[in-house]
Amino acid sequence: MSGRLTVVGLGPGAARQMTPEAAEAVAAADILFGYAPYLARLPERPGQERRASDNREEIARASAALEAAVAGAKVAMVSGGDPGVFAMAAAVCEAIEHGPAEWRALDVEIVPGVTAMLAVAARCGAPLGHDFCAISLSDNLKPWPLVERRLALAAEAGFVIALYNPISKARPWQLGRAFELLREKLPGSVPVVFGRAAGREDERIVLATLAEADPARADMATCVLIGTAETRIVPRAGRSPLVYAPRSAPAP
């Protein structure tokens, strides 16, 4: 089978944050598949086809890309951030599991990228320097009570929490509810970082406390990092403070 599918992480958005491996995979493709805003990040190449689709069409997009690869094309499926973090790598694997046998014979490669929580963390210090977890606040593919349970357990276990998909026009209330729940489990002084478009020209990094965290500071381009009682803030004269999680765990 001459075709192949590469699932590529483009990083958080700035061209300089894309890995050389990802750039090479994109350049080598005959056809690019992806969510339209992600494809728009990439320069046009003569002879290279683009097939954009809506954000809620992941399985259909994965299936179309697999079909194109079976037909002999060198296909790149692009994702923002890392393709394995709330993105297209899982959709491709799911499509292969439930699809025709010929899809399993394809050459499929996953190319990693810098995911949003890492980009945001790097802009403010090292808030993920100790144990952490990532939770998507979208309840499109899982029930909201499960999201609440995971938030509560993560807070009780002492994990720093990275929140993906915090808010959207269709889901305007979930982040506020998440903050309410976490205030029941954590001190109000716990640091909260709102990291929007980290590394891009429209970047906005805002540090708040859990007690004063305002959901209106977030949109779908924002990753929210919520610290623990052990998270430290280091003031710096004339510079943004450093936020970090100490490497040593607290005594039980």
Automatic annotation (TrEMBL):
SUPFAM superfamilies, A to Z: Tetrapyrrole methylase
Pfam families: TP_methylase
GO biological process, one term: cobalamin biosynthetic process
Residue ranges annotated for the Tetrapyrrole methylase domain, each copy included: 4-213
Key word Ribonucleoprotein present: no
Keywords in alphabetical order: Cobalamin biosynthesis, Methyltransferase, S-adenosyl-L-methionine, Transferase
EC number(s) from the headed UniProt entry: 2.1.1.131
Biochemical pathway: Cofactor biosynthesis; adenosylcobalamin biosynthesis
Origin: domain of life: Bacteria
A Gene Ontology molecular function term of the record: precorrin-3B C17-methyltransferase activity
Protein name: Precorrin-3B C(17)-methyltransferase
Organism listed in the record: Xanthobacter flavus
